[in-house]
Structure formats: structure tokens, C-alpha cells
């Protein structure tokens, strides 16, 4: 039986959106150049400082839970509280007496109405613990030592207009539109909970999130000594939703509970989202304020087995004890500094298996049967290293202090979606690991000669319809057969509920839901491809005796000749990837995520260009087949986009238009 949606306590207080100009700078597209890095690393051979290896202790996790429970008791609003470490290990799930055990994934549409239809993920009833964990993971994964983001921040950057408000129709969609459906429970990248939480591989990350990333306020990051060490997520009202209006202040009980929980573990004020402007609008961190909190309760023993109890969550946490977090950057965390044999780049970080082995060592492509000459290991290394070099020179979009360098995750795949190498900056946000892989695979998939064939053969009867909609929309009945190179910016254009992006009254893109059905929880093809995976996982988490967890292969597209899925962690629909070509033939793709969508585009595009120039055999797609050659006949004849690079992005030169002519 469905639970009624709880009413949110909302105070209509008008907020002025801060207009702040982003810093400008310059740069060329070549490797090299020197500049003073920020913050200063410990070695002259380094561009970045390694984050201190901080972690939450058992006593600290207990204190965080006690503080959140104390606020919930004061508000007379029982809740479920989840705490995770930086790489997503669940350290505790505490259910208060009387807390709702179920929740509804909000059925509200973009029009603000209650939809009677269960479109995509809207309207699903699932375990409330899934929401609490997803919120905690979101806050931890979106944050770093240079930026502290919350689930309210996530809400602001994933909606159909940015910033989301009744008076902003006509503005483009949020910069991370679609990121909420990353870190999926079916992802082949995400590590999984090890029963008993024992053994050397038990705590390796990054871990999955039960529902992907959350946009429902009530998830905040946790810090120690300026270093992000995890996140807290609260689920109390039974409504897993998002905030459609940033012009008012919500008196959200869940956010007050989370705010109480992070006292003593709050991020530095100068790196909070509400100190970071994007496209002239300052982001949101929390509507709850410290002065609105009740006196803190810090004793876990005073609430454990009285106000509530620890509970197990199938696939995430065994419920027997509060756990300590694992320090990010250690072998046990699953993310560590690369050895010289793995990368010559002194700042490179890689994913590890917890026992010393790189999970994604550089290798050649597996698809020679399809492409003839597959990417070689030397070519993959050249692209990864050149992209990493561009990252070290680029001015960050979201990091503080100003003029910090960008930090991102970088993935390269072949046309089968096989991971050929993955590298990242030391303090890049964790969410970008899975997202960079999604982006690379999405670019490789939609640029592939078999894209339409794969979608038409999907076992979900709804998926094939997206192919015909795309062909009709583009006026090309042979679309998605490899004639055109699609970057994620291009596919994202086709995935918006208005085309052109944000222009109210225009038709929806062929890969999107119409605006009457659209919400951040109902985006179209992106979710349709994985809805069955989400449903199966939800049944598993509920604990049904015969339910099996979803396999680590998202989507029901046909297998590759090597027995895998080309989009095995889902697709992504915001910018930051390009396909890679050899003599006009698709051979793979690169995906970037972590520090601004234009920066992501630039690092992908220039990394491919410079890497290709270095080895002399591969490069970006020929200009004549890039998606920006397509003029969509719908409406006024709008041209698709391919990449959008910042005009003056670098810290070491003053060059502009760095992607022009490449």
C-alpha cells in the first residue's frame, strides 16, 4: 500500500540569486608550461597535494548519528539515518522507532502536478533505507577538499532549468543534468558490499548507491580537518523528490537533522556550495541553519536500543555494529596513488582491488574483429596522459580557492565499452569515476554503427521507439548507424525536455520525455534503459527470500562478442566526452568528469587531439562527420553541438579559443 506523501514545512522567503562573474584566464592546447599550483604540493614534481588520509572513527560515527537523532526527537519526526565514508562504504544505518519504512520516488512532474502514471522511476515505492543511503553517498561523492556539495546542491544542477524556479523558464538545463542516474546498483564499475565487512577487499570503493545520486534535500558531506570523509543521509517524510524552486527557503526537517549530524564535522565555510557561482548563479548548500537547531545530543548509548536501533540493509550493511571509515587514498579504500610503472605522471591516482592490483591497467582494445586495428596500449596511454596534462593546466570551475587547477576522472574505452584505462586527479570528486566511464561509453555507443541495432534489439519493448523518434526528429531514417560522431553534449541536446535546451514551448528532444511527463526522476531513454535493473535491485533490498541482486551489467542491450554490455553502467546525458577515430573509423572514446562541463569537454577533446598527435595514428572525429554538422529540421533549424570549450581556460598562458580548428 502506498504511503501518503508527507507535507514539507516551507517558509516562503524570497532569496536573491547572487550574480558573480567567474574568473578568466588563458591557455593554449599544447602540453607543457609551468605555473604556481594551488594549493602548493609537497614536491616540486607535483601539481597537486594529496588529501590527508583522514577517516571517521566508530565513536565519531556514533556521535554523528546521536546528533541527528537528537534533532529528530526534538522535531518529533522519526527518521532513518545513514552514514557512509568517502568511497561509499555504509558505516551505519539507524532506524528510529516509528520511522517510515517505505518511501515514494516522487510522482510529481515538471509541471508541479501529481502524475497518476509511473513514468520511468517516478511513483515507485521502495525501502526508505535506499533513499537515506543514496543521499549520504551523494553528499560524499560530489564533494572534495575544494568543494562541499549536498543533495540540495544536486537538486539545483540536475533540473530542466538552471537555476530551477518558477521565474526561470527559458534558461538551459542544469549543468549536471542526468548525473542523478550514475553510481547505479547495476554498474560494473562500482564495488559491492562484502558480507560481514571483513577481509582486505571489504572496503574498496567506489561503492554503488541504491537509487543513483539523490536530489532530495537531507544529504550533507562530512569533513575532518578540511578533508571530506563521508556523508550523512536522512529519510523521514516518505517523499524522495527534489526542490523545484530555489527562490524560497524550505524548513525541511530532514535537512535540519542532517545539519545537526554534521556539527563538528562540517565543511569549511569557504568551500561550501553557497560560495561557488556557476553561470552567474550561486549554488545552494542547505536551507537549514545552525541557529535553528535544538541543543545537540551527542551520546549514542543514550539513544541506541531506546530511540531506535541499527538495522541491516541487504547488499549494503549487516547492521551488527557501527563501523569506522576507510581513509581515502589508501590501498584499502580502492583508490590510491599510481605507481611509476602504472603512470609516469606523479599526480596520477588509480582504482585498486584492495590487494595492490590496478583494477583498470592500460591495455589495448578488445574489438579488433569489429574495427580492424583496435586501439593499442600505447595509444590509450598517450590519450590518458595528454588529457591528464590538460587537466593540470586548466582552471577549475567549482573548486576553491579561485585559480585552483581542475581535478577530474578520465576513462578510455573501446567500441565494445571495455575499459582500456582509468586515471584521476588526487582529490577529484568520487562521482566522476563512474560518470567518466558512462560518458565514454555513451559517446562510443551512439557513434557506433550498431547503435540503432542494439537499441532495437533491447528486450524492453519501449526502447526501440526512441530510435524512430530520433530518426524522425533528425529527418534521417538512417540515423544512429555510425555516420555521425556523437559527443555527450550532442546526445544531451537530444535528451532535453525542450529543444533547443530550455526554450519553453519547443518540442522535447527525441531521447527525452515530453515536459508533461518529465522530472529529474523521469528523463527518458537514460532511465528507460535501466528501470528494470532498478526495480530488481529494489526487490532485492526489500529482502524477498527468492530475490536475486541485479547483475553487474546495466541495460538489456545485446551482449558484445566478448559477452559484455557496451553501456554496462548506463548512459550519461551531460557533456564531457568525445569518440576516438583512426582514419575516419570509430575505435573508442574518452570520458571526463569532475570539474565543470566545459572543462570536461575541453580535457576530452584536447586530450584526444594531443594524444593522437603524439602517436600519429588516432584523433578526434573528422569534422565532416561530427554531430555539429546536423541541422535539426524541427522548429527553426537548430544545429546540434559537439563540444564547448572555455574561451580562456588555462593558468599558464593567455591563449583563447583553445579548441578552435582541431
Automatic annotation (TrEMBL):
Family matches, as InterPro entries: GlcG_carb_metab_protein (IPR052517), PduO/GlcC-like (IPR005624), PduO/GlcC-like_sf (IPR038084)
Domain of life of the organism encoding this protein: Bacteria
Cross-referenced Gene3D superfamilies: Haem-degrading domain
Signal peptide as annotated in the record: 1-25
Entry keywords, A to Z: Signal
Keyword Signal: yes
Pfam families: HbpS-like
PANTHER family recorded: PROTEIN GLCG, SLR1406 PROTEIN
UniProt protein name: Heme-binding protein
Organism: Novosphingobium subterraneum
